[in-house]
Structure formats: structure tokens, C-alpha cells
Amino acid sequence: MANALAANRGTAGFDPATLARLIALLLPVGLLGGALFSQYVGGLHPCEMCYWQRWPHGAAILLAALAFTAPVNSSRSHFFVLAAALAIAVSGVIGVYHAGVEAKIFEGMTTCTASGRGLSAADLLKQISRAPIVRCDEVQFRFLGISMAGWNAILSLGGAATILILSLRSRRA
Q1: In this structure, are residues 101 and 136 in contact, taking their beta carbons and an 8 Å threshold?
Q2: How far, in Å, are 60, 132, 145 from residue 13 at the CA level?
Q3: pLDDT: is 14 or 22 the higher one?
Q4: Which of 46, 56, 119, 170 is 20 to 30 Å from 131 by CA-CA measure?
């Protein structure tokens, strides 16, 4: 009995479903937290595609939190964990595209927009001149030669695959 129970345990003594649920919550919290930290503490200004990558992580956090409202091996928890993994993977796919734009493999399709409603011409000019110009095809920061978009792609797609594998393993047990 103890051997069968130990065989069903994952890393650090967690069963696969618990580990999948933890990763589904902690991975997007870490990645979104890192992006916000780099923006507000590190002074890096996000481009439009950087924002695109953040929204699925926000959705994944909400979905993974909902998974914690049910028992770990329930169908409800399993559904929300897989939905969170899908949202994480979406951010990873956007990260692949963004990294490709940075590497000039893909052509970016973003446009800059501004709302000048209710502003005088002088106020609008002042607002435009103070706004940082951030292009999606220029890398602001690299770590180990990989841009932040590249790291998001690697960690998000790897994490989503790990969550899926752990979820499938927990369903078989």
C-alpha cells in the first residue's frame, strides 16, 4: 500500500493533481509579477505585444484560483486547472510570436493608438512628447541571450505542458 501511494506522488511528496494545480497558479503569478516588477521597479516600458502576453496570465490566475474552490481530484478542479494551462499556453504562443517579431522572423502587426478626447492641441502634444515610444521589434532586456518575450514563451509553454502531463497522470491513478 505504501509503495502504491509513493508511486503516485510527484515532486516534494505532492500527488500529480496537487502539483498541477500549484503550477497552474504559481507560474502565471510569477511571470505576471516579474513583468510588473520589471516595469514598475526596473523601468522597462512594455510594448503592445507585452501587454497581450499579460492578459492570458491574468485569466490563468483566476482560473487556477477557481480550481482551489473544489477538492483536488474533482472534475471541477481538473477543468479549471486545464483551462488555466490553456490560458498559460496562449500567453506562450503570443510570446513565440513576439520573440519572432523581435528576431525579425515575423512582421509585427501592432499599431500605436492614442486618445486625445477633450485635450487642447498643446495638451495633446505634451502628452505625446512625454509618452515613451516602445517598439515591439526591439528587445529592451535580455537574460542569457533570450528576450523577456522568449522567456515567457519557454516558461509558459513548458509550464502548460507540465500541467497537462501531471493532470493526465493524476486522471490515470
Answers
A1: yes
A2: 24, 48, 35
A3: 22
A4: 56
